[in-house]
Design the sequence.
């Protein structure tokens, strides 16, 4: 039997349909699945995207680099910045600017990294490692420094060190500041793929794909494939399992993630990251005992690393209520010189819970000073001041928090409560009213406003408010009582009224 | 009047739309009791896919020429129409059964045996999974299978304790209003592991209050206060919540005031005693608060109320006069003062 050849219009229609479907898939990938950094709107940018989609990472990195160079050239920026000079291929100028900056400040980590990048461009891997190492001595958690170090270790063929630094960067992820960092990592990934398949460091590639996954969810599949290869080959098995688990965890496959982390622990019981991630999954599942056990073991393996001390302190604070132990851990971390607003905020909270109002105030004030645009610390400060019965001061701090973020209902509600505690009932009322207006779910706390109306001697409003509440939530005798309360009832001898 | 479209392309597009609506309805109002219902989303997905293929076929070959393939397509289209009609009727029934259900929701405790299903990626991610449950009943544990929506897939895991809010249904077909993790089980587990842990008991108390189990909340609050007698903040929280719900919050509020006698805490204690009709203790609390906060108008006001109620009119007048001095213009005070003075001087 012969199959009839489709007629030309039908063939055309099939072609149109095929083009439409392929276009839709590509458009979806371009617009939805990948981060904006991977789809710049320029000729080299689109070339970079297409090369990236086809898996040509080296070519994609070169095209993205061209895009950045064109972008800065079009903007007409003067080359007085070492990073720009480097991007424009002017290594001499970049080196001069970086050296000058280092003369002024030998701890200028950005300039040390520029020299490291120049060395990478010149294939002087040893020099690159030396410069980047110096930058990391100044800022050990700097994400750019860690990623560039990973690139340099990869170049040097030192996969275990590359994996360790990448893992560190991903653990303390804060995003890169240097435009070229991502391009270098992408290019290095492409370089590794050009090696013969049996010589590719699978575990390192799994980590590189895990990094790229931040910008493109589909990289997760490649990370899993490389991690499985690494496990099969016995290449840093515990770290490969951790990467496998992390990708599963990000894809909401908690059971598979947990299994992978437990296998990592089995392969290497001293892998602190595996324990930390297992604690994260147990926390998601609400298994407090296991979460605590894992977080504690991670801390015991790396007792001096705040990345393991702080999660344990949070469990002790928020889940177990062991405030003293948590305070001890946080205080130790602070003593290592890692003073961050978040840590100071935690310390303020713990001191407050332990009734040390003045210490709580001190830490919150310091946090608010370090992060003046963040209302969270002022909200905490208000609480610490209220603990000391300094309600007027609390009101002032909370006013500042609300001014920084007027739509933050939680801070506004705290302000309303502080005003009420300070006896400033007329000021509390509009804050309560606005909080309920902006966040209607808070109306379950309407009794707060009803009671405040009463304290402000607005008895009719108090009664109406109590009536409204009893209509939405029957079975609240206190509100019934407020609704029916009147002084004349006492004179008339009414029961309880 | 013709309601359904004549054009086959429009008909397939309509079929896709109603199948998607029916699918979302089945996810929203999950029926409990018949395990085969857990597979219905597969039927819905297959229908959507089939109609998309038929739509593509119409696009490629719009003419209805004769031939074996066309005959198969025609029969398939007819069969798909029948299935989709049945599917939509079922979805409408489920929507009415749940939407017009005015019965009280009942709580059922269950354990997740396993979470099944998978994530399909065909350009558009399709997430469909189900949970096998063991629901605790009076006669033992009953196995059940429940479909899970995209947001719920991550939430549950094998061995987890969950709580289901179940409606009995307008037409008697039970449906699941919500399925949540049974937090109480985990708080109690944490307390078993570490009886002195402060936070799990606080969380348990909050959970019990939120779920209307007030006497249990009171008992757990008392346990916490026995273990941590200096936790004034918790004492106020428990006392206020018990008081609002008409239970005896006075011991907790009294403890909160003893630990931290703020103006507001003092008033709330006096108010709780007022609601209980305990004028003697209310007068005692208000007198102490009034001397601690001499500028606060509310203490002499409520004190006046209790004196008036106890027929101690002279003291009531004195209290209200003080209150009026601190906050002039409160209408109830002026009226009450006039009536009290009249009682003192009947002429």
Sequence:
């Amino acid at each position: 039997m012969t199959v009839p050849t489709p007629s030309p219009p039908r063939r055309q229609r099939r072609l149109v349909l095929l083009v439409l479907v392929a276009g839709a898939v590509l458009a979806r990938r371009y617009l939805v699945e990948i981060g904006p950094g991977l789809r710049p709107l320029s000729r080299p940018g689109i070339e970079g995207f297409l090369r990236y989609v086809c898996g040509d990472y080296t070519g994609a990195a070169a095209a993205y680099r061209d895009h950045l160079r064109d972008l800065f050239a079009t903007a007409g920026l003067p080359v007085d910045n070492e990073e720009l000079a480097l991007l424009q291929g002017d290594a001499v100028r970049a080196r001069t600017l970086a050296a000058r900056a280092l003369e002024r400040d030998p701890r200028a980590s950005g300039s040390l990294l520029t020299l490291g990048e120049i060395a990478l461009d010149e294939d002087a891997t040893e020099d690159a490692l030396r410069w980047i190492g110096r930058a990391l001595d100044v800022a050990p958690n700097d994400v750019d420094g860690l990623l560039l170090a990973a690139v340099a270790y990869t170049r040097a063929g030192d996969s275990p060190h590359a994996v360790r630094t990448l893992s560190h960067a991903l653990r303390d992820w804060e995003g890169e500041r240097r435009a070229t960092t991502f391009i270098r990592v992408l290019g290095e990934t492409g370089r590794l793929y050009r090696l013969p398949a049996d010589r590719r460091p699978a575990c390192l590639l799994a980590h590189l794909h895990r990094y790229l996954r931040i910008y493109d969810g589909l990289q997760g599949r490649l990370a899993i494939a490389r991690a499985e290869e690494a496990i099969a080959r016995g290449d840093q098995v515990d770290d490969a399992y951790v990467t496998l688990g992390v990708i599963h965890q990000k894809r909401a496959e908690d059971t598979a993630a947990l299994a992978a982390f437990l296998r990592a622990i089995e392969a290497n019981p001293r892998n602190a990251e595996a324990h930390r991630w297992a604690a994260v999954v147990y926390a998601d599942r609400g298994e407090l005992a296991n979460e605590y056990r894992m977080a504690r073991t991670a801390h015991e393996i790396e007792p001096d690393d705040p990345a393991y001390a702080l999660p344990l302190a949070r469990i002790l604070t928020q889940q177990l209520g062991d405030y003293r132990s948590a305070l001890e851990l946080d205080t130790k971390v602070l003593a290592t010189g890692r003073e961050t607003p978040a840590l100071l905020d935690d310390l303020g909270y713990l001191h407050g819970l332990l009734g040390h109002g003045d210490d709580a105030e001190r830490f919150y004030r310091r946090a608010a000073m370090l992060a003046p645009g963040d209302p969270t610390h002022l909200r905490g400060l208000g609480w610490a001041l209220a603990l000391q019965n300094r309600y007027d001061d609390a009101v002032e701090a909370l006013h500042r928090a609300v001014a920084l973020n007027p739509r933050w209902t939680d801070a506004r509600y705290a302000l309303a409560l502080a005003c009420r505690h300070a006896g400033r009932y007329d000021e509390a009322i509009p804050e309560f009213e606005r909080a309920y207006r902006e966040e209607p779910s808070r109306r379950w706390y309407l009794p707060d406003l009803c009671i405040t109306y009463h304290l402000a001697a607005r008895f009719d409003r108090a009664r109406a408010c109590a009536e409204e509440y009893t209509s939405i939530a029957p079975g609240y005798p206190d509100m019934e009582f407020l609704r029916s309360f009147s002084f004349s009832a006492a004179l008339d001898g009414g029961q309880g009224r | 009047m013709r309601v359904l479209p004549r054009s086959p392309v429009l008909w397939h597009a309509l079929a896709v739309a109603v199948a998607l609506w029916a699918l979302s309805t089945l996810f929203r109002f999950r029926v409990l009791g018949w395990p085969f219902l857990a597979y219905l989303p597969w039927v819905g997905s297959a229908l959507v896919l089939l109609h998309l293929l038929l739509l593509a076929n119409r696009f490629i070959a719009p003419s209805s020429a004769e031939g074996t393939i066309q005959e198969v397509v025609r029969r398939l289209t007819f069969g798909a129409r029948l299935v989709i009609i049945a599917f939509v009727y079922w979805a409408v029934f489920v929507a009415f059964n749940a939407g017009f259900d005015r019965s009280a929701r009942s709580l059922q405790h269950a354990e997740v045996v396993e979470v099944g299903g998978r994530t399909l990626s065909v350009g558009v991610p399709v997430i469909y999974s189900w949970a096998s449950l063991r629901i605790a009943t009076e006669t033992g544990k009953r196995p059940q299978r429940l479909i899970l929506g995209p947001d719920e897939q991550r939430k549950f895991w094998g061995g987890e304790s969950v709580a289901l809010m179940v409606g009995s249904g307008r037409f008697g077909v039970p449906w699941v209003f919500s399925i949540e993790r049974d937090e109480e089980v985990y708080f109690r587990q944490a307390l078993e592991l570490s009886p002195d842990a402060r936070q799990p008991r606080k969380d348990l108390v909050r959970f019990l209050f939120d779920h209307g189990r007030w006497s249990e909340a009171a008992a757990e609050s008392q346990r916490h206060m026995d273990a941590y007698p200096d936790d004034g903040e918790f004492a106020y929280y428990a006392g206020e919540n018990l008081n609002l719900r008409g239970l005896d919050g006075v011991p907790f509020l009294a403890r909160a005031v003893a630990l931290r006698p703020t103006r507001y805490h003092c008033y709330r204690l006096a108010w709780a005693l007022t609601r209980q009709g305990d004028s003697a203790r209310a007068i005692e609390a208000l007198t102490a608060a009034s001397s601690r906060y001499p500028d606060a108008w509310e203490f002499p006001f409520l004190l006046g109320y209790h004196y008036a109620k106890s027929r101690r009119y002279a003291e009531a007048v004195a209290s209200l006069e003080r209150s009026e001095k601190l906050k002039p213009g409160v209408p109830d005070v002026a009226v009450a003062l006039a009536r009290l003075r009249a009682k003192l001087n009947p002429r």
